[in-house]
Design goal:
The protein is α/β, with parallel strands linked by helices. About 40% of the residues lie in helices and about 15% in strands. Strands 8, 9, 10, 11, 12, 13, 14 and 15 form an eight-stranded mixed beta sheet that branches. A seven-stranded mixed beta sheet has the order 3-4-2-5-6-1-7, with helices on both faces.
Amino acid sequence: MSDLAVYHDMSDVELRAEMRRLAALKNPATMAKYLDPRHFQIRAHTRLIGQTLGQLGPDDRLLITTPPQVGKSTLVSQSLPFWWLAREPRAKVVLGSYAASLALKHSRVVRRHVFEHGAQFGLRIQRGEASVYDWSTTAGGGMRAVGVGGSLTGFPATLAICDDPHKDRKEADSRLMREHVWDWWSSTFMSRLRPGTPVVLLMTRWHEDDLAGRLMHYEGVKARGGKWIVLHLPAISSAPDDPLHRAPGDPLTHPAIPDSNIRLLTAHWSKKKAETKARDWGALYQGDPKPAEGALLSREQLERARHFQEPPAPMRVAVAVDPSGGGRDEAGIIGGYLGEDQRLYWTHDRTAHMSSAQWSRAACQLAYDTDAQLIVVETNFGGDQATLAVRTAWTAMQHEELIPEGTLCPRVKPVRAKVGKLLRADPIAQQVIEDRIRFGFYLPDLENEWATWQPDDPDSPGRIDASVYLGYALLRVPGAGKAVTTATDISRASVQPRGGAPVRRTY
């Protein structure tokens, strides 16, 4: 009997069911909609991923990078295996992930799909196959789930899928763990493939030398003569050749938001960016991992700036404060001095999460401990209240006998930032490079902020700002007037002088 005759004998209900079945076989995205019509939504990005997967051929290598939580695992790790088995009942599908438990979760879903929908596509689980780790169909096909480091002995794969080989930032930043993933990929995962087996690597990027980065380095992009077809879908389009034909700045579609609602899509990704550190935003959401080194100073430059042994005597001592404000509750407090060699030495870091009452007292305490003649306070958010807080705290600490009665308050100098963080920090970074600023003590948190801060970081670390203001206060820095405005010095809180030359109490 011909196929047409079979359709002729079908009822309308049966014909509609057959049309849905045939439509599902088009690609993994249409199959995902068929398997879960209530929850899976075909959006522009899942449609493109589905179409690309549907065109996989022998020996193809496909890398897909997307932000988290956009439906990629549902499509690639759950729908693709079922779709592949529906078309190739004897196929052997291997699915790997950073953890065996995650791979098993996906395998369990695929196995359930076979139980619930397999009959429509000629698929049935082999009798007695109870394991979700390794199961077979009556046609001779099946699936094996494995975590990174797990064995694939005795399983000659005809489709290989690897979904997120790196667990998180911590593991991706570990060279040892990256080598572990690479060794497993080359010695186990890829060594169990039959000739002609396509490979799909699905990743959220973490590190420039993660598995995707290393494969691109060694094997290259197919469009440039390498092995890998790359489908890169960043949260915000940043290239003129975007796979979805988005203009630069356009948002990625999302399973929970209609494609037409550009305003809501833009708001969603803008919120994610605001809640995410710059390095994670670039890596996870834009698929563009950057080294841990930031935009200002390298680790090597910072190490060269250390001067812990026999620093010169201080000529002028100061404390600089970047008060908490602008949505950030960390107050930067950095102390230091201008040495006899005309270099600035950063020596103290009292930065912490503090209220105005707390940071003002901490600044006064550090100024007294180091015999500072100057307290520099940034007033962009606090205005006159910031300088008033310092003078009030000094007086209160005298009454509490934390500072001797009659001890002269250091001069309080308000400063106001006129430009963005990068523009005002750059000249001070240059002073470090030119050996005009050194670290008089080991200040690891301050070093780390200088080494890792990125210009688009939503956070504004207080340590950098405070150390920058200290630099402008104690050094002659080219372009300082363009970066900050210095207000008239505030009068001292006491007329009783502190006799003698500056004393290095805690150096």
